[in-house]
Amino acid sequence: MASPKSQPRTLHPRLAIIVLSFFSTQPLSSATAAASSSKCTHPPIIFNFGDSNSDTGGLVAGLGYPVFPPNGRTYFRRSTGRLSDGRLVIDFLCQSVKTSFLSPYLDSLGSTFTNGANFAIVGSSTLPKYVPFALNVQVMQFLHFKARSLELKTAGSKDVIDSRGFQEALYMIDIGQNDLADSFAKNLTYAEVVNRIPSVVTEIKNAITAIYGQGGRKFWIHNTGPLGCIPQKLWLVQSKDLDSNGCISTYNDAAKLFNEGLKHLCQEVRSELKDASVVYVDIYSIKYDLIANATRYGFSNPLMACCGYGGPPYNYNINVTCGRTGYRVCDEKSRYVSWDGIHYTEAANSFVASRILSTSFSTPPVAFDSFCQ
Ligand SMILES: *[C@@H]1O[C@H](CO)[C@@H](O)[C@H](O)[C@H]1NC(C)=O
Ligand SMILES: *[C@@H]1O[C@H](CO)[C@@H](O)[C@H](O)[C@H]1NC(C)=O
Ligand SMILES: *[C@@H]1O[C@H](CO)[C@@H](O)[C@H](O)[C@H]1NC(C)=O
What we know:
hydrolase activity, acting on ester bonds, Rossmann fold, two-stranded parallel ribbon, glycoprotein
């Protein structure tokens, strides 16, 4: 396949984006606490779509692209393909309703898909469409997954999701960060970046509508985090206007505009598809609070990668990224926000997840475990 994407831009560190996501005044224990307090006896089936913020091993399974240690050092104690030292926000959310971590759709060995599937892949964006692994491709993969499951069900298979399972499942989407980052990386002006936002939001609407058309009714949509606080961006961008917390203002402004569009889209979908439940989660505010108030939450160096090269202020170097020859990694006891200069640490992901579970950042304020059956 001579697709331009057979050299996926997702493999380029500038574009391999990111993850966004994550917990609070009891940083290391809150998601766990939420998990154990949940009365969920029948966890929801979950289907997730997105980028590296929620990729639980899809890039590695799909393209064989290696993710080296020290990725995985804190929780799994081996590399699982997650770009973090441990769990991602989606892992904490799954634990909070006592369901297993989602298997990547493309993981053919040892995977079970009885509790759903994860279509998220590192580097994914909404546009361009029809290239691996754009959002619309992930939705097409889901359609295939669903058709195959129902076929197998009809043929007598027991361990596959049935039609009711697909209807009652929770559909999660966390994408958009790479669309913004790609636009900036192409040196588009701020106005040009902003002009592209409505078409990105439209792609997310198309995804929701397509899933709704297949019977899906429950949607959980994450907005995008503060792109301008990512150490990699801070290191890459030469002339930058920094805000009071040391983040790039234009990047964060673009992220906020995208989020306004996404929030509006969620309202629109709620009024057009009356029997759909659409929860919009403000990841941006959670993450920006974590960065601005890092010390209060027990974190340090919120704009510096734990794993990277170069030392302060960002400890990022595109030639020596985490896991590549020459990298340095922070002490296991330290609590950084950024793991590799792009993605968050397990500690930060845990913080974000506990904030998500509080419902204070959700519109409407629906509890995650209300999707338990
Ligand atoms: C963007 O601008 C920078 C600095 O002028 C330059 O080094 C880089 O090659 C440009 N990138 C693209 C994709 O044009
Ligand atoms: C930091 O914490 C203070 C005190 O709780 C709060 O008022 C402020 O909004 C926080 N900053 C951000 C960016 O959320
Ligand atoms: C990265 O490597 C390239 C090619 O060797 C070199 O030209 C560039 O200066 C390096 N950049 C940094 C920041 O070390």
